[in-house]
Amino acid sequence: MDGVTNFQSRGRMPPLNPLYRPIQALDRPYGGPDRPNVRVRSRAALWRLATFVPAVLTTMGLIAAFTDWFAMGGLSVFECVVIALIAFTFFWIALSVSTASLGVATLLWLRRYPASESQDDVRGMSVALLIPIYNESPADVFGNAAAMIDALQDEPHRHHFSLFVLSDTRDEEIALQELRAFHALRATLPAGTGVFYRRRETNTDKKVGNLADWMENWGGSHEAMLVLDADSLMSGRAIVALADALSDDPSAGLIQSFPMLFGATTLFGRIQQFSNRIYGSALAEGLARWTDREGNYWGHNAIIRSSAFAACAGLPRVRLKNGEERLILSHDFIEAGLLRRAGWSVRFLPRIEGSYEEVPPTLIDYVLRDRRWCQGNLQHLRLLASRGFHTVSRFHLVSGAMGYLMSPAWLALLVVWALVGQGNDGNVFQYFEGFDPQVRWPEMSTFKGISMLTFMYAMLLAPKLMSAGAIHRVGIPLRDLGGARQFVLSVLAEIALSVAYAPVLMVQQSVAVLRTAAGISETWSPQARRGGVYGWPTLFKFHALETVLGALLLVGMGLGVVTLWLMPIVLSLVMAVPLSRLSGVNLSTRRWTARQLATPEMCNTPRIIRRAMAERRRFARLLATPERMAAE
After folding, report:
1. Which of 55, 77, 265, 333 is most buried, most CB within 10 Å of its CB?
2. Taking a C-beta distance cutoff of 8 angstroms, is the pair 233, 609 a contact?
3. Tens of pLDDT along 164-184?
């Protein structure tokens, strides 16, 4: 409390107004008093049937086809395991196709933009914009903050907004720059503008503890909190739209926006940015349709009812078998489940435009972030039995974990196809003298085998092609994508590059799952956002497993015991190191590559992004000056 009082005396934080935040129990239903006055009524039963039934039926059909193909003299246990792996992986592909189909149908059937509501019908709220940071670039954080404050001042609304930068930074030099940037920001704003800064002495419980500290000290002064990440950026219209939506829906506990990626300059960053912008809209529309009031929370760019979140979403620690208690890592999914358990709706509104975040610039940066997410998402499997969770909330937990478990399943299938080789006429087992597995291997080159493999590849590409075909209904003119020719080239390039990087990511995610299963903790470090090319020694060390695996498969092909149908995958694995090197190449440095994989944020940059970039440069110049601003 001394630290809190010290911050108040320096004018960095407002007066205390605590919000009671009890820790929840996951082994018994919620019994707290804070529930919505309006009963939440889900209207998604029909949409869920339209999404899940086709996915289940398609998966069953594929299982029947593979069973018939494998049953050339009876099914062995090994073949049953293979069929189970195929079913396990394919269902999630089919569900993605169903969700995208529902999204495309929604875009084609309904207007893209909802009718604007009169501000006279909106009840004004006190909303806190929270930016938790940890050893981030102060120029970028405060540059984004300045742009959002300016944007809100230009946007008509009935709400009262305050902005809090909540620092958990451990580096003293960065902390000093944060303080200088804060004072510089305050100096440019009109008197009375609600902008505050607080740095915790200890970063207990990481981001969860950072936000909890704010709620338990100042949360009572604000009806809602809009949680942002260090790299988050939102237009004034998007912020106001989220506040209006929460004010208009008394049953809503949390409303999640759909963050678009921006600022990517490297090849790998552009792939993610293009995919998110072009293919993401249809998937987001479909997801919003069938989740309805049982949506999910992604930890940022979402507005939350403060009292509801404090009353029913206080996270407990997870007790391990050895008695040790551990922090829930991917807290956002669980917090959404706790809100819904208490009777609050959790909504996803993908049509609110102007919500942005940045992206890992290279393959290695992406993998390092993915390892932390993998550890948190797999932890969710231990929480599936939590009492009172809605079925859809449990499905979100399963889905998040399956996003990582699919990779070792695909890797296992890759090993199986490598063993199968050319069928009975040539397979790996023939090289082990005296070993006969008593299995009649199906031949990959048969019409049935080719047909099923083609079908699976088509299902993988279907969401992308459907979404690209419906781009005119998303409200993006082709001129904002570089023109029709450039758009087609970008789609083809994204598909080709995604196919190239997919095997490498499969192996890396399998490694992440194994590291998690082995109890290897992933340390949290600030995300690399600037890009750059890693040195060859680092690349060879990082991708040694993929390279060796690809080389072994290539040798098997040379010996005639590994099917040539695996050649695209094998080439990607063998080329993992150069592909990783290529991922960090800066496309913006050359004129002919600058507009490749173009998105509207590149061709017709929104005003909020232009503002943020200008403010970032201004703060970078300010912080680069030698004079130091006194801490007082």
Report:
1. 333
2. yes
3. 999 999 999 999 999 999 999
